[in-house]
Amino acid sequence: DSGVTQTPKHLITATGQRVTLRCSPRSGDLSVYWYQQSLDQGLQFLIQYYNGEERAKGNILERFSAQQFPDLHSELNLSSLELGDSALYFCASRKSSGSENEQFFGPGTRLTVL
Amino acid sequence: ILNVEQSPQSLHVQEGDSTNFTCSFPSSNFYALHWYRWETAKSPEALFVMTLNGDEKKKGRISATLNTKEGYSYLYIKGSQPEDSATYLCASLRIQGAQKLVFGQGTRLTINP
How many other C-beta atoms can be found within 10 angstroms of the C-beta atom of residue A101? Predict the structure, then answer.
């Protein structure tokens, strides 16, 4: 158990819909990262938040957005869903300082868009 | 190299044999190199974070080396066991203003009993 929690575990929805994925980082970790893992693709970095502020952006679509709240939990919002958005979405947390700190991954949310 | 590349993509090894695989990453603006183990139906778990050229880290039967000048890292597993079966991911962290981990596609390792 990494200490990072994600809900829900599974989500099945239809095209055009909007969903929210939730992540709670490990206690004391200020940074939250979101990743997407599609079929036959590696982990793709989407976005990072640090202490409530957006810190880095990766290959995140305009239909997707995220935020980090004062209690440090984060939400990833996916809207106008398409079939190709079906994937495993991971969040990870990390201590803020130092290059030596690894990321701790949550169990992931599997999104299926029908 | 602009991306993080791992080879081979998959590997089958007999139990008890030793094995190794490669991660190639951009050497410019290097900051850190991460190795993760990802077992099926679980989430990636950190093995090593390496920052210094020539660094060598070890955890049990698994070790890793780092060459930041030429941009590669090797992961070694000695005396493979069935529980070593997993996908091994490496990820590069570069100093480019915003730091973000760029993952390779992984090496899927299967240990045959």
Answer: 16
Which regions of chain B are under pLDDT 70?
Answer: 1-2, 96-99
CB B90 within 8 A of CB B4: yes
pLDDT at A74: 97
Residues whose CB falls within 8 Å of the CB of residue B50, separated by 6 or more in sequence, listed in order: B32, B33, B34, B35, B57, B64, B66, B73
Residue with tokens 């030793």: B18
Residue B91 φ then ψ, to 5°: -145, 140
In this complex, do B98 and A90 lie within 8 Å of one another by their Cβ atoms? no
**pLDDT at residue A40 in the model:** 72
Residues in chain A with CB shorter than 8 Å from the CB of B34 are 102-103
Contact B37, B103 (CB under 8 A): no
Residue B89 · residue B73 · CB < 8 Å: no
Q: Which residue of A has its CA nearest to B48?
A: A102
Q: Do B98 and A56 touch (CB under 8 A)?
A: yes
Q: Determine whether B65 is exposed, middle or buried from the number of CB atoms within 10 Å of its CB (0-12, 13-18, 19+).
A: middle
